[in-house]
Amino acid sequence: MTVNFEYVNMDVSEALSAYTKVRLDKLSDKYEFLISAQVYFKQDEKDNEAGKHCNIELSLPGPRIFAKSNEREYETAVNKTISDLKRQLEKRKETYKVY
């Protein structure tokens, strides 16, 4: 699966990219129909409580799947976003089952 990263209002973080890539590779192993992922990290200076945004868009057969989260830390945002994506992928996998 191809993973593209985009950083908005922040510096590029290789550690954050590697962490996210590992988590997405686990998804790719479980759901073989995934094609690619577009990951956006954004820092919001105005939001004092959280301000760390993670948006992930998965490309697969049919409509794309999208999830986002806003947390205090990027790792927490990545985990929450991937958890939301797993829930959506389980629903999508049901439509691919052969009866």
Automatic annotation (TrEMBL):
The record ties this protein, via InterPro entries, to: RHF-like, RHF/RaiA
- Tell me one Pfam family matched here: Ribosomal_S30AE
Name-wise, this protein is Ribosome hibernation-promoting factor, HPF/YfiA family
Starting at the broadest rank, the lineage of the source organism is:
Bacteria, Pseudomonadati, Bacteroidota, Flavobacteriia, Flavobacteriales
